[in-house]
Each structure stands twice: as structure tokens, then as C-alpha cells.
Write a structure and sequence with these properties.
STM4215-like, six-stranded mixed beta sheet, 208 residues, disordered C terminus
Length: 208
């Protein structure tokens, strides 16, 4: 399970994947790959490349579990928080033909690499995901009306070709703290106690 940095790590991993694959694509333009905020979409348009905009985060109630992972000392962490991340990949280019080529290429890359491994997810910040963990990326549904309304609010009606994707059930668990007296958050997962022990009894979360 990942810690609270997982949302950022997943977004950066998607653009990182596209960036690393772009060198062999043979584009005659220098492409950019960035995670953007709504303000950046309005004020910092790209000449050519792919942007990722995270527009919705849901708690996945289907996959939610009542109990957390057992720590190395046998205590149980707080329940895990599964999130679904919904984002737009938007394709940029001064000419329509370039936008279309970038779109087709990027969608093919995602289709060929739908599962992001921990090595890629941890490139920006180490130890966000545990070894062996993965995140699956897949296309999702967003009506044409909702897509156009989203761009209307984002960039004053200046629409850019975009495709919605999702990362499903990104599991977040309670962060671990340093040993008593150290007072540092997240210094290492295996050799420190959890923030506090919690357990479920008869369906009620209790403090130990």
C-alpha cells in the first residue's frame, strides 16, 4: 500500500512513462509532458506535447476494507483508503495534424503499458509504493457535454483534444512515524511503530 504521496506519484508516473517513450517515437517537434493545474491550463499553454489534469478523486467504496495492514510488530494500522483518480490527457500542437499524431501515439503507449510498476511510480519520490505494487490505468467514460463544460471552466472555451483516463483503487494507508523521540514522519517503513494502534471490534473502530 502507498502513503499519501501516491496521488501525486501516479500522475507523475503517467507523464513520466510518456516522456520516456517519446524518444523513440520520431516526432519532429520537441514535446513536453506535464501535470498541470487549472490555472496552468489557462495561463501556461503548451506548444506541443501531453498534459495531465487531475479533475476528480473518488473514494472507492467497493474496495474499501475495514482493517489495515499488520505492521512488523503485529499491530494493525488504520483502515486502508482506496482512491479512484480521474484525469484528462490533453494533446497539444500548433497544428491539428500534430495534435492528432500526439493523441494517437500517447493512447497507444498507455494501451501498451496499462500497469505502472513500483519502479516507475517511485521515480519522483522514493518509497511511496512498496516493491511489487502496481497501479492500473484504463480509459473511462466522460460525456461530450461534461468534457466541453470542463474545458469551458478551465480555459475559457479554448478546447484541446482530450481523453479521460482513470487509475482505480490506489490504496493509501496510514503513514508511519519515526520511533519515539525522533519526531520525523516517514523516515522508513520497516523499523518504526505506527502512529497508534487501532482495531475493529463488532464493527466499531477503537483506539488501542
Amino acid at each position: 500500500m502507498a502513503d499519501f504521496r501516491a496521488v501525486s506519484a501516479v500522475c507523475e508516473a503517467v507523464v513520466g512513462l510518456l516522456r520516456s517513450e517519446s524518444t523513440a517515437a520520431g516526432f519532429d517537434h520537441e514535446l513536453q509532458f506535464r501535470v498541470l493545474t487549472a490555472r496552468q491550463l489557462r495561463e501556461e499553454p503548451m506548444n506541443a506535447g501531453v498534459s495531465l489534469f487531475l479533475y476528480r478523486v473518488y473514494v472507492n467504496g467497493t474496495h474499501r476494507l475495514p482493517a489495515g495492514r499488520l505492521g512488523p510488530n503485529g499491530t494493525q494500522a488504520a483502515h486502508q483508503l482506496p482512491l479512484d483518480l480521474h484525469f484528462l490527457l490533453s494533446f497539444w500542437g500548433r497544428e491539428a495534424s500534430l495534435q492528432h499524431r500526439v493523441a494517437g501515439w500517447a493512447m497507444r503507449v498507455i494501451e501498451d503499458h496499462p500497469v505502472l510498476p513500483a519502479g516507475l511510480l517511485n521515480r519522483v519520490a522514493a518509497d511511496v509504493f512498496r516493491p511489487g505494487e502496481t497501479v492500473e490505468i484504463s480509459p473511462t467514460e466522460l460525456s461530450t457535454e461534461d468534457l466541453l463544460r470542463l474545458w469551458e471552466n478551465l480555459a475559457q472555451n479554448e478546447y484541446h483534444l482530450s481523453v479521460p483516463y482513470q487509475a482505480r483503487a490506489v490504496w493509501l494507508e496510514q503513514p508511519e512515524t519515526a520511533a519515539a523521540g525522533e519526531g520525523e514522519l516517514g523516515a522508513g517503513p520497516a523499523d518504526r511503530p505506527l502512529v497508534e494502534e487501532r482495531r475493529f471490534r463488532h464493527g466499531v473502530l477503537e483506539r488501542a
